[in-house]
Amino acid sequence: MKVVALVSGGKDSCFAMMRCIDYGHEIVALANLIPLDDSVDELDSYMYQTAGHQIIVSYAECMGLPLFRRRIHGSTREHSVNYRMTPGDEVEDMYALLHEVKRQIPSVNAVSSGAIASDYQRMRVESVCSRLGLVSLAFLWKQDQITLLEEMIRRGIVAVTVKVAAIGLNPSEHLGRELKDLKLHLLKLNEKYGIHVCGEGGEYETLTLDCPLFHNARIVIDKYKGILDNPNSTIASVGVLHPLSFHLEQKNASYSTSDLPAVFEVEGNPTLTQTSSSKPLDSEFDPNKGEQAVNFRFSSTGKNLLSIGCWIQNSSKTSKGLQEDLAAVLRQIELRLGAEGFGWVNVLYIHLYISDMKKFALANEVYVKYITSAECHFGVPSRSTIELPLVKCGLGGGYVEVLVAREPEKKKVLHVQSISCWAPSCIGPYSQATQYKGVLYMAGQLGLDPPTMNLCVGGPTAELEQALQNSEAVAKCFNTSIFTSTFLFVIYCSARLNSSEKIQVQEKLKSSFDSSDNPTFLYVLASDLPKGASVEVKPVIYASEVEEETEELEVGTLRTPLENIFGKLQIDKTCYQLCNIKGKLLSCIVSITSAEASKICSQQDDNVFDFQCGSKMHMKTIATFCVSFVAKILCENGFSWDDLLILRFYYPTRISLSADLMDCVFSEAFLHLAQVDESIKFGKEPLFNLVPVIGSGQSAHMDDFITCELLASKL
Questions:
Q1: Residue 387: helix, strand or coil by DSSP?
Q2: Distance of CA 572 to the CA centre of its chain
Q3: Which residues contact 166 (CB under 8 A, 6 or more apart)?
Q4: In DSSP terms, which residues pair with 537 in a beta bridge?
Q5: Cβ(568)–Cβ(493) under 8 Å?
Q6: Transmembrane residues, as ranges (predicted)?
Q7: d(CA 627, CA 607)
Q8: In three state form, how does the secondary structure of 325-365 look?
Q9: Residue 506 phi/psi, 5° resolution?
Q10: How far is Cα 229 from Cα 238, in angstroms, rounded to an integer?
Q11: Which of 235, 260, 552, 591 is deepest in the core (most CB within 10 A)?
């Protein structure tokens, strides 16, 4: 990509440019924001470093690149971390600056910044980039600061301190010192006081005088004065270096001053624009038109959470294609949310099932018209996307499930849009992870190399390993780990995998977890995955911010006429996994294999069970067993139907029954359960979602007849 680099003069922004070049990008311009008054060294700003700004104009000559500069007219008006366009805010000066760069250099498509740990800075850069259609590159983001410091010095960044403001840093001794000379002292202060060795806590700021990108010249400060602020402080005095004179030393003998690049002073204010949130009205689906009808699945799954699933019913006759179908489904979910007093802001997680992964970009175009940052001011939902055989089952081009919170202000969202070395970016209105009431719902992770956003080489197991690394990087931001706190782990596998590769994926995954910390595992065989990936992982993690006390379980025994039919509702213990976290969270995967299905059906009749077709009569028997077994699991673990968050039944398309018939069969099973046990009360809406797949199961064989996924919470 062609990159404009935001430069403050500090070591971080210069090293970020070097990292851009490492990953094959081209720096084509520099951009810098400076105080209104040249005599002012440091602004009271969390956003911009301006100490040493008098020298930045020389960067154009040192690098041989055009420099765009703008004076900062605004101030801090929007104080929240999640920035929203605010006239008069200092961030709008960055918008004006980059807007002009893009106007003069239309080929620019990315912005580089030196953000390491500040969400405040990163999210403001990302906001501006989103509005201008630019990609944010933040290759230092979340990197280990000691490693970064050592690498900067090793790779030839010559920087001096132009501000010190931390205990252990004395202006008279440490101001104006080279970074390499301060390294050992900074490491000692890190051990003693916990300071950030790269100065991310405002401990110090630097000015780069030379680096490998300065092809033409290096900067030499001839004279400066130190300005002390609060010199009598008993904790830490603040000192700022004010350059009085400097000159350039030529490094390139062939370079001529007649070749000086342009320096542009950017003035004026462009029309402020916010990301569009308009709906594609012309392509929206009219549910009352013709024979087309939208079938809703709405389930009231507890006091604080509910789940909505929506698809187009009988779409073999009515489907207009993926885009139109998905727009219809999203519109209907939006209407349903509104009818319940909710909006997209309440949505924690979205499962996006599409009929053709080749049209993923088109699906995204529809998606971003409905789910926007403006609509989701507490943070955009996390998301997983897979291709399923929807059309074959008569479910249209798009099928969407959303998990909805009644108290959206209590969710904590991690949404990093910048491309970095940390974890894959989410460039758009979908986030890496969402935490709500002790549960961390992580977006589907592919085996992408974060800085390049390409699938790693080496096949399915290599992709899995990278996906696990990416997931762990996200989990660490919530002070947890996928390897110790995951209680439900979903692995989507591409249908392209052969039997040997599936087993290798399972063995690799099992070896990554300690046997004592094993979560419940669910494998789903999908028609295709984004970017043609082999695997996609989706951990669900217990990540309570407050340590929960373990409550004594109020367990019961299911006693209904159903148990007389099925004995004690027993199946082979190898056919289900269960994880109960302190009586607060319950995850269960139930695998009804063909052998178990045959055993269940044999108790009811003598007909031979046929896995390939699965007659309606046999399916009724199996559905009734599944539903009553779910009731048994909830009861025996001290959970109620009100605690239910997610209940999915996965079925393979090899079963010859239609989606409508499957829906009818399972609905009747729940109705039967309520009729024979009056203590169980269900609402008018189903509590479950039916998901058609190529295959599924608790092992990588993924050859179940029916797989049940259950998640319940008391948090």
A1: strand
A2: 37
A3: 189, 193, 195, 201, 202, 203, 204, 236
A4: 445, 491
A5: no
A6: none
A7: 22
A8: HHHHHHHHHHHHHHHCCCCHHHEEEEEEEECCHHHHHHHHH
A9: -65, -45
A10: 5
A11: 591
Rounded-to-integer distance, Cα 715 and Cα 702, Å: 31
Confidence of residue 421 (pLDDT cuts 50, 70, 90): very high
Structure tokens at 22: 């490492």
Taking Cα atoms as reference points, which of 495, 593, 596, 485 lies closest to residue 536?
495
The DSSP secondary structure of 596-614, one letter per residue, reads HHHHHHHTT-SSPP-TTT-
Angstrom distance (rounded) from CA 709 to CA 522: 8
Matching residue, tokens 């509104």: 338
Name the residue among 451, 614, 447, 471 with its Cα closest to residue 538. Answer: 471
How are beta strands 445-446 and 535-542 bridged, if at all? antiparallel
Alpha carbons 236 and 228: distance in angstroms, whole number: 11
| H-assigned helices in 358-514 | 360-370, 460-476, 482-485, 499-511
548-561 confidence digits (pLDDT tens): 554 444 444 444 45
Condensed to tens digits (0 to 9), the pLDDT of residues 164-218 reads 999 999 999 999 999 999 999 999 999 999 999 999 989 999 999 999 999 999 9
pLDDT tens readout for residues 136-179:
999 999 999 999 999 999 999 999 999 999 999 999 999 999 99
pLDDT score, position 712: 92
Stronger pLDDT, 611 or 516, i.e. the higher one:
516
The Cβ-side half-sphere exposure at 519, using a 13 Å CA radius, reads 28
Nearest to 310 by CA among 289, 346, 285: 285
Q: Is the dihedral of CA 77, 78, 81, 85 positive or negative?
A: negative
Q: Any idea what DSSP says for residue 550?
A: P
Query: Residue 416: CB partners within 8 Å, gap ≥ 6?
Result: 122, 126, 141, 422, 423, 425, 426, 432
Which residue, 149, 147, 108, is CA-closest to 20?
A: 108
- pTM, entire model: 0.89
367-381, 459-473, 652-666: the lowest-pLDDT one = 652-666
**Strand 520-526 relative to strand 486-494, pairing:** parallel
Evaluate whether 203 touches 164 at the Cβ level (below 8 Å): yes
d(CA 442, CA 489): 10
Lowest-pLDDT range, 113-122, 317-326, 344-353, 461-470?
Answer: 317-326
Which of 634, 628, 668, 627 has the alpha carbon at shortest distance from 648?
627
**pLDDT of amino acid 313:** 72
3-state SS class at 527: coil
What 8-state DSSP symbol labels residue 178?
B
DSSP string, 107-143: T--EEE---SS-HHHHHHHHHHHHHHT-EEE-TTTT-
Residue 93 three-state SS: helix
First to last CA, the chain: 45
Which two three-digit tokens encode residue 87? 């006239």
Three-state DSSP state, 694: coil
Looking from the CA of 466 toward its CB, the CA atoms found within 13 Å total 26
Residues 536/446, Cβ–Cβ less than 8 Å? yes
For 80, which DSSP code? Answer: S
Sequence-distant (6+) residues with CB within 8 A of 425 are 136, 416, 417, 418, 419, 450, 453
Helix axes 594-602, 616-636, angle to 10 degrees: 100
Q: Where are the beta strands (DSSP E) in 144-292?
A: 158-164, 204-210, 217-229, 238-250, 263-265
- The mean-pLDDT minimum among 6-20, 323-337, 439-453, 491-505 falls in 323-337
